[in-house]
Amino acid sequence: MLYDLSLHMGYIYDTPASGARHIMRLMPLSLPNRQRLVAGSIKVSPTPDEQAHFTDFFEHPATSFMLRAPHEKLDIRMQARVQVESHSIAADFSPLLAKLPEEVGAIWSLKPDAPHHFLGDSPRLAETKTISDYARGALSPSLTVLEIANAICARIYKDFTYDPEATTVDSTPTDAFRLKRGVCQDFTHVMILALRSLGIPAGYVSGFLRTIPPPGKERLEGADAMHAWVRVWCGKTIGWVELDPTNNIPAGTDHIVVAYGRDYADVAPVIGVLKSYGGQRSVQAVDVIPLQ
């Protein structure tokens, strides 16, 4: 599937900001046998005084930039064309949960995609008893790791309501769990914590979701903003599998990957610091248009 993507992110400040330093992770990745970035560009207004490109620990391209002069707003626009391939799982060769520690222990690598990085606490995720208890409700001795991940994904989809007004980008998984409401970031964080509490490596995927559904299909939740879903390590044979708890589906050709990390802190599309006072307003608009 070939897509044209467009993203607009804007920040409007109550008082002019200055001395701003930001890092962007917005451009879709090129991944072997998964997706290919055909072309892409990012424009920032005002024009940055300094700009540099680097690769982070998880091997994602990122851009840092600085704006020295006072500015009343920041405008970021990304355009890209991406080819996404089908990557469905033919069969479940994941181990039973009791066998998973043995398979994790057999991995000696500490490369960015090694499961060891995705087992413990991370910047925005610390073990939470209520979510751990919730995860144990999906357990059964006969279930494989992939079956457990699918069961937790389906349970979150059933128990939680998609509500963009219920939480903010700074809400904790505990907040969302208590409300049983939130957005894709909340559902993803809750599912990651649930899986990690069982000893299953799980991480965060940032990306885009197809805006216009195929004929006869329902529109997916979260399609007008950047999307998030879960990456689960299901043993050495299958490896990483991606599940979308907001829509209770495996990530497929409707999902376009921008970044992988332990939680939102590793993949935030725009982060930074600036000098200002008062509040700010933000806007975001996303279009993911299929070309064939």
State the gist of this model.
The protein is built from six helices and 14 strands. It is an alpha+beta fold.
What does the largest sheet look like?
7 strands, antiparallel
Classification by helices and strands: alpha+beta
Cα radius of gyration in angstroms:
19 Å
- Order of SSEs, N→C? EEEEEHHHEHEHEEEEEHEE
The separation of the N and C termini measures: 6 Å
- Please estimate the helix content: 10-25%
The residue ranges in which pLDDT falls below 50 over 5 or more consecutive positions are none
Average residue pLDDT: 92
By oligomeric state, this entry counts as single chain
Please tally the β strands and state the result.
Answer: 14
Counting DSSP H or I runs of 4 or more residues, the number of helices is: 6
Report the principal-axis shape.
globular
Beta content: 35-45%
Q: Any key phrases for this structure?
A:
seven-stranded antiparallel beta sheet; 292 residues; 6 helices; single chain; alpha+beta; five-stranded antiparallel beta sheet
Could you please describe the fold and organization of this structure?
The protein has 292 residues and is an alpha+beta fold. Helix content is 18%, strand content 38%. Strands 1, 2, 3, 4, 5, 13 and 14 form a 7-stranded antiparallel beta sheet that branches. A 5-stranded antiparallel beta sheet has the order 11-10-9-8-12. β3 and β4 (61-67) form a beta hairpin. α2 (129-136) crosses α5 and α3 (145-159) packs antiparallel against α5. The chain is globular and about 60 Å long. The mean pLDDT is 92.
